Amino acid sequence: MGQSSRIILDPGKFEGEHISVPHFYDSALDGGSADVYSEDTLYTFIIIDAEDRAEFPDLTEYGLMIWEDSQGFVRTEWFSTRAEYDCAFSDMETAAELEDREEE
Fold first, then answer.
1. With 80 as the cut, is the pLDDT of residue 4 above it?
2. Nearest to 39 by CA among 60, 68, 13, 3
3. Three-state SS for 13?
4. Is-contact 54 40, C-beta < 8 A?
5. Where are the domains of the chain?
6. Which of the four pLDDT bands, split at 50, 70 and 90, describes residue 5?
7. Cα separation, 77 vs 72, whole angstroms
8. 3-state helix, strand, coil in the chain (%, to 5)
9. What is the sign of the dihedral through the CA atoms of 17, 63, 27 and 96?
């Protein structure tokens, strides 16, 4: 992704993230994405579709994971391929299931 010139520099919850992140954050809040709760944090996995690419043509990734950290900043992890995305989602689901078992 050609992020270097498309980073949010203004202070706030999206500071340091790509300019597309507020768009994906709003999408996550609207639902329709895959969510995983782990360690009291909601992680949302989003596949980048044709509409997203039309709005942000520099995006080359397959998808991303988005969450808020303990200070309220929005953070992302980007996945170049479907395999990376699927692996991260599976790993996060497994971790969440183990946490649930430990709480029982």
1. no
2. 68
3. coil
4. no
5. 21-103
6. low
7. 16
8. 35, 25, 40
9. negative
What residues have CB less than 8 Å from 77, skipping those under 6 apart? 64, 65, 88
Task: Kindly report the length of the chain.
Answer: 104
- Quick count: other Cβ atoms within 10 Å of Cβ 14? 18
Among all chains, which residue has been given the structure tokens 């946490």? 99
Higher pLDDT, 39 or 75: 75
- Name the strands in the sheet holding 74-79, side by side, starting at the edge strand that comes first in the sequence: 34-38, 41-47, 63-68, 74-79
Q: How far apart are CA 61 and CA 41, in angstroms?
A: 24
Contact 8, 21 (CB under 8 A): yes
Measured between alpha carbons, how far is 47 from 69 in angstroms, rounded to an integer? 21
Beta strands (DSSP E) in the chain are: 34-38, 41-47, 63-68, 74-79
Whole-number Å distance between alpha carbons of 76 and 99: 22
**pTM of this structure:** 0.86
